[in-house]
Amino acid sequence: MSIKIENLTHIYNPKSPFETKALDNINLEIKDGEFIGLIGHTGSGKSTLTQHLNGLLKATSGKIIINGLDITNPKIKLVEVRKKVGLVFQYPEHQLFEETIYKDIAFGPKNLGLSQEEIEERVKEAMALVNLPYDTLKDRSPFELSGGQRRRAAIAGVLAMKPEVLILDEPTAGLDPRGRDEILDQIKLLHEKFRSTVILVSHSMEDIAKLVDRIIVMHQGQVALTGEPTEIFKHAEKLESIGLGVPEITKLINKLNELGIHLKEDILTVDEAKEEIIKWIRGNENA
After folding, report:
1. How far is residue 269's CA from residue 256's CA, in Å, rounded to a whole number?
2. CA-to-CA distance for 249 and 193, rounded, in angstroms?
3. Which of 1, 16, 55, 227 is 20–30 Å from 28 (CA)?
């Protein structure tokens, strides 16, 4: 699904002493099937923006057009929008409330009025997508699972709705490194399998760098930068001026280049850096 945002502004507590402009005339276009990384420091407007995309917040002004449909139109039935745009909040496991994993994941599909047979099929498929064994875990309480498993179960509840746009707000917050890697690997596999539109909100430059097609940088309610990861990380000074910086591996490559060890500048991961450094060493041994 394509998303077009036109002159979007959102003001919290308007005409009061606590008035705050969270979004300031945002203009963006997200193409069908894009994997977007949305980054910015706390208070930059990231979460406010994502909550507009499935109608949780009402715009002060501007439009959001999803697949040609203006979801800011008061006549639009937002329940139909939310079937197509799935939003996974930060710490989504805190919203698990049923007595079993099966019932929790089945909650959304059940509210769609699906048959019991189709609900069961969706639960099985969603659990498989997040690498949770159906037969082993379906009857377990969510609170018997590890933190990473609970997070994946909560994501499965959104996936069972089969959204065409998946928005994940800091999906690895609070997880240990293993749990974080498991979640990010599953998100990457989901995008590769379905080519659906994915918007990943994160503070981690390293996570964003190795996953997304394009980065949108938010600052003070506006879009500060947008472009492919290699393009964005060329603006190290600007990123640092707004409290973000660049991935550590990018800093290392830049430092090596300054020292005369000439490497590609579009390296984003440790594996790419290792391969390039080994290539440079071998080239200089043969020189």
Report:
1. 15
2. 28
3. 16
Whether CATH 3.40.50.300 fits 3-229: yes
Count CA atoms within 13 Å of residue 163 on its CB side. Answer: 29
Helix axes 147-159, 116-129, angle to 10 degrees: 130
Within 8 A by CB and 6+ apart from 274, the residues are: none
φ, ψ at 271 (rounded to 5°): -60, -40
**Residues 93 and 147: beta-carbon distance below 8 Å:** yes
Q: State the pLDDT at residue 286.
A: 63
Distance CA 187, CA 230 (A): 21
Compute the distance between CA of residue 2 and CA of residue 34 in angstroms, rounded to an integer.
9
> Are the C-beta atoms of residues 19 and 4 closer than 8 Å to each other?
no
Mind listing the pLDDT tens digit for each residue in 56-103? 999 999 999 998 889 998 888 888 888 889 998 877 777 778 889 999
pLDDT at 46 over 70: yes
